[in-house]
Structures are given as structure tokens and as C-alpha cells.
Design a protein that fits this description.
Layout (H helix, E strand, L loop, with lengths): L1 H28 L7 E8 L10 E6 L5 E5 L5 E7 L5 E7 L2 E3 L2 E3 L7 E9 L3
Parallel strand pairs: 1-8
Antiparallel strand pairs: 1-4, 2-3, 2-5, 5-6, 5-7, 6-8
């Protein structure tokens, strides 16, 4: 009897998971995918001066994948097309100095987020 109940529960679990997968693929097929978001910002020194050629690190906390961006002459960086359902950790490094790590939360529903990363000298 216990084996039969266990099999029944297992079958129901598999069916429920299948329904979720089918439903998700229908949503994507209809073109109503979640809108992507962008992270824009600047890397600056402790005195607020822009930092050119700083390495900005963006870590996807779900997959642990890391993307990088080399800041432009005005310290600008950008990461377009980010998933709205993922938390990201961001920090910058340049010449031995590093910024604090900041988080872009999945709960932040803005389509475009702006962030300033201030470098601190190495101690």
C-alpha cells in the first residue's frame, strides 16, 4: 500500500512539473518574456574623479557567471540585457584599488539602474 501511495505521489509530482514547463514555454512562445534590464554607472576615485580602464565585475549569483567591462574615459560602464529575476554583485578594480561590492537585487524592478563604484586604495 505504501509503495502504491509513493508511486502515486511521484506521478503527480512529475505531472505538475510537466504542466509548469509547458506553461512556461507557452508564455515564451507568445512573446511575453520578462523585460530585460540594464545596469549603467561610473567608476570614480575616492575624490570623485572618473577612472578610465577600471575593470568592472558583474557576478550572476544564480549561475556564478562573471562578466567584465573596462570603464571608458569618463569612468562609464554598462551591462545591458540583464535578467530581471537574478541578483547580481558588482565591484570595480584598478591599480590595486577596489570598490565595495554592491548588489543589484531581483526585487529592484527598475528597467535601468544607475550605480557609482568608488575605489578605495589598497591597505
Amino acid at each position: 500500500m505504501l509503495k502504491s501511495a509513493y508511486r502515486g505521489a511521484l506521478v503527480l509530482s512529475v505531472l505538475a512539473a510537466s504542466v509548469c514547463v509547458v506553461r512556461a514555454s507557452v508564455v515564451e512562445t507568445n512573446g511575453s518574456q520578462p523585460e530585460l534590464r540594464a545596469l549603467l554607472g561610473h567608476v570614480v576615485t575616492g575624490q570623485g574623479e572618473p577612472v578610465q580602464k577600471a575593470i568592472v565585475y558583474l557576478k550572476n549569483t544564480k549561475t556564478l557567471a562573471i562578466k567584465t567591462y573596462i570603464s571608458e574615459a569618463d569612468g562609464a560602464f554598462r551591462f545591458p540585457a540583464l535578467s530581471p529575476n537574478v541578483d547580481y554583485e558588482i565591484y570595480a578594480e584598478s591599480g590595486g584599488a577596489r570598490s565595495d561590492t554592491k548588489t543589484l537585487s531581483a526585487f529592484d524592478n527598475r528597467k535601468q539602474v544607475s550605480m557609482t563604484l568608488k575605489l578605495h586604495s589598497a591597505k
